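Let's do one together. I've listed all components of the complex below, 589 residues spread over two lines.
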Amino acid sequence: MIAIEYFLGLSAILFAIGAMGVLVKKNAIVVLMCIELMLNAANINFVAFSAYYGDLTGQVFALVSIAIAAAEVAVGLAIIMNLYKTRDTIGLDEISLLRW
Amino acid sequence: MAIDYSALYPVMVMVVFAAALPAVHAVARSSRVLAGVSLVGIFVTMALELMYIVSGEYPVAIGGASVELLRLDVFAALFALVFLAVAFYVVLASARYVEKDRHQAEYFSLIMLATAGMMVVAMAVDLIALFAGLEVASISTFALTAFRKKDKRGAEAGAKYYVIGGLSSAIALYGISLLYGITGTTNIAGINTALAGMGPELDIALLLAIGLLIAGFGFKVALVPFHMWAPDVYEGAPDPIAGLLAAGSKKMGVVLLFKVFLVGLIAIKADWQLLAGVVAVLTMTVGNVIAVQQTNIKRMLAYSSVGQAGYMIIALAVATPYAVEGSIFHIITHAFMKGGAFMIVAALAYVALGENIANYKGLAKRAPFLAISMTLLLFALAGIPPLSGFVSKFVLFSAAIDASQIADQSWMLWLAVAAILNSALSLYYYVRVIKYMYVDEGSIKDKIKVPWSMTAAVAICVIATIVLGVWPDPVIDICEQAARTLFAG
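Okay, and this is what the predicted structure of the assembly comes out as:
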């Protein structure tokens, strides 16, 4: 059996890549993908801990969060498409009407 | 074994009505009919929740005694009532606000679903249910923010809110996964038991989990330094939805913090109390200082909302039932004060009055009722007696002073001092709006006529603000029960 540290290391790296991407990337779709990376890092944690404890709760949580993430992406893509239609851009640095 | 779902009946009523609204739209193409049907649904749910509170008998928890998932108790019922009251006046004000828009059925449907999600969060005793409810409410409000698809500012606000909301969910979920890894359970009270058994040493993973949870939920509540999105989103969203976000969605974030920190992590409260105190003081100060410079009324209300969240978080730092009682009462009063102010902005936007504070010059002569309502609500926000904001702030701040009597907690006195100074500061920018309305002469002098449904929504908020200020005892009693239930786990 693979030791749990490896899973936690993988998830930490994924989470860090995702967080970094959200901070530096300007394209809304790329940012969306980075958020998905972060969510999946958490899912890896859940499943790894679930196997470690021999407890099913973590797997249930991972399934629930996958379903929720799918719903979130559906709404998110619609919002980004609408942004492109009204503003002709999906660059997050180019949308700056709302500012003081 | 059959599962008893009676604890979910109020949520089910909301969801059934939300699902029925598009069908109603096919028959009657009028936003007033849709709003009417939504109001019936909200009213039935409120009656159900009120029945539970008055009778004091609650349905059995869902999920069995060992692994509870959702529990309807006085805390959950009270918060459900707050969220429903917010949804009630938001729907009432929206009846005419969206009359020219397309997709009206979806608009009201999403308001109902968002409210249902918030009610699930208030009932959750397990992190799975908590996260699911949080996401139902968040996803609905993302769509609502970008509801006016042709509106450039709405589209931008929706995209910003979506990115920030998704990021905060991901951060919170990672924090939750670490918490599950440390304790081996997702039951909130179970997490506390497990942590209490581990002794006082803090391992790095637990510290990381606390940080991620404060950051993830802090985005939802718009705590400093995670507040930057709030003014943009409130400004770009349709006005009634801005009210729903400030009065409903933000309160759900506070409930999340209460549940996770005051129930799940109370055993190690010494580790995060000071952090929560620093965040509270930062939040109220930054919110109020930036609000002073705003010229757009919605941005000003948004920053003042950030400041008010700082007051509510005092309860997290103090972590006594008395403080939580004050915080819950402040959440209730704030739901009406801030929501009412946004409804006035919505009503004035409906008659095409701009969002700039300077546009409100001479409003006292043009719309006397709205001007006096705005004055009352702003005075309540600043905490002037005998309005509700004074009572709730009084309870909250005195709880902090009370707690500072105990040794090693004298720093909590500074929470109260900072909060009182901030209240004084906030009075400055509230009074500026009142001066514009009453003292200054506007260039246009015609009377403003506002639809009665919007007037009614504002009237509900004003009446609630006055009644809660003059006669707060019954509600404070329920808040006390709710706070005790929360601490009982």
